[in-house]
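Below is a filled-in request sheet from our internal design queue. Each sheet records the structural input a requester submitted and the sequence that came back. We keep these sheets so that new team members can see what a complete request looks like end to end.

REQUESTER: design group, bay 2
PRIORITY: normal
MODE: inverse folding
CHAIN LENGTH: 425
BACKBONE (tokenized):
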């Protein structure tokens, strides 16, 4: 193993894995803290559900994952978080970074959530979503991690006891040697973490080359695009052209959506407006007994006879706020995730073998409900979202999963994903 990745949610894990596969690294994703021997691969990505849990618990899960990856021989550890730096003033990005640095005896690392292909860029330490500062984007209304400050140096400094500095774009633009010199200067100034600017893929390649020898890198998925070429130049990696191949599957197709992001809301509306079958989950109706997970599943299974079906809890920010006022933030999330996971499990039992899941928290709940522990990474549907292959516990049946971060994908993403995988949508 060359690279061991610790991702703080399941969609983020498939996101970073897809970048590595795209560059020819044979990559396997393990769901949850690894147990037993890890698979043989160039890169192993550990998918945790740690983005919004208590910081101490997130640290504990990350350290256990790090130790398993190190035992398996990983040369470098990569802590992967969201390209919109989803966190709160308490964490979890800062506390996990601190703990991993201590465990790896790392005196310095970078932070860089940039993913230019999906419109996430960092300039002068400020994160932009398209042309909008993070704090003016739809992330300002995220139900669990509202992002109200685009200055990531300031955001990260509030979460860590280590000194955070800036690696500005003019330096990155000059190339890897200039970056190495700037990082050395930041070290001499007493900085321990550098927030790195990046505006395009060339910047990611530069950062990958300059940081390939660090014990720890922390980033969104973008920097993962730059690491494999750096490994090739060091003689560590021979790219595999067939790294993204998956076995074919046969069976029904469905979409389960719990994300309430602006992008996913548009994708749900497009599916419905273009005639797609859809079943809506209402958390308040579920709470007071007017709706039940079993009834939702029955309705969805009936619809499967006529083609792919979407089961969704996606709603507008106003509706999310209304639900949270009644159920609380954690209560609303837990109720919705449990119901969607129950429906997904039932759909798979009914023969669904191509399943798209939208939302990081929802993806974690669904994969855990299915009992899947390992994913092989396949071709990308769009930047950051690949199809993956899993074997179901019990009979070992093969199915394909696409775990989509809420903010990723075009308006027609659900149809594009199913059409690409051979399901009439």
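RETURNED SEQUENCE:
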């Amino acid at each position: 193993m060359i690279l061991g990745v610790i991702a703080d949610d399941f969609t983020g894990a498939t996101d970073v894995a897809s970048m590595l596969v795209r560059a020819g690294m044979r990559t396997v994703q393990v769901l949850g803290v690894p147990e037993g021997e890890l698979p043989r691969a160039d890169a192993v990505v550990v998918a945790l559900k740690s983005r919004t849990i208590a910081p101490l618990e997130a640290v504990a899960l990350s350290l256990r994952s790090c130790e398993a990856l190190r035992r398996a021989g990983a040369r470098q550890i990569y802590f992967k978080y969201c390209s919109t730096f989803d966190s709160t003033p308490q964490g979890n990005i800062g506390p996990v970074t601190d703990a991993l640095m201590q465990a790896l005896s790392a005196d310095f690392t970078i932070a860089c959530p940039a993913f230019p292909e999906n419109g996430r860029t960092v300039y002068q330490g400020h994160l932009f979503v398209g042309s909008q500062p993070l704090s003016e984007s739809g992330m300002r209304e995220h139900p669990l991690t509202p992002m109200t400050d685009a200055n990531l140096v300031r955001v990260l400094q509030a979460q860590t006891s280590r000194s955070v500095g800036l690696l500005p774009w003019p330096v990155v633009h000059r190339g890897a040697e200039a970056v190495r010199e700037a990082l050395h200067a930041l070290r001499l100034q007493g900085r321990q973490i550098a927030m790195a600017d990046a505006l395009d893929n060339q910047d990611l390649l530069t950062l990958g080359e300059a940081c390939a020898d660090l014990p720890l890198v922390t980033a969104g998925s973008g920097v993962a695009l730059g690491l494999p070429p750096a490994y090739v130049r060091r003689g560590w990696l021979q790219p595999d052209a067939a790294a993204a191949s998956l076995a074919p599957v046969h069976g029904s197709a469905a979409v389960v959506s719990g994300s309430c992001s602006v992008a996913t809301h548009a994708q749900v509306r497009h599916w419905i407006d273009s005639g797609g079958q859809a079943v809506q989950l209402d958390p308040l109706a579920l709470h007071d007994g007017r709706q039940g997970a079993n009834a939702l599943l029955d309705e969805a299974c009936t619809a499967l006879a006529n083609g792919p079906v979407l089961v969704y809890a996606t709603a507008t920010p106003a509706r999310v706020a209304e639900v949270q006022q009644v159920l609380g933030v954690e209560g609303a999330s837990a109720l919705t995730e449990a119901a969607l996971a129950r429906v997904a499990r039932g759909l798979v039992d009914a023969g669904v073998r191509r399943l798209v899941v939208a939302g990081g928290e929802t993806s974690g709940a669904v994969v855990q409900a299915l009992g899947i522990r390992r994913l092989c990474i396949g071709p990308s549907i769009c930047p950051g979202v690949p199809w993956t292959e899993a074997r179901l516990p019990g009979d070992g049946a093969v199915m394909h999963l696409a775990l989509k971060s809420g903010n990723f994908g075009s308006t027609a993403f659900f149809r594009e994903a199913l059409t690409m995988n051979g399901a009439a949508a």
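SHEET NOTES:
- The chain has a mean pLDDT of 94.
- The first strand starts at residue 3 and ends at 7.
FILED BY: M.R.
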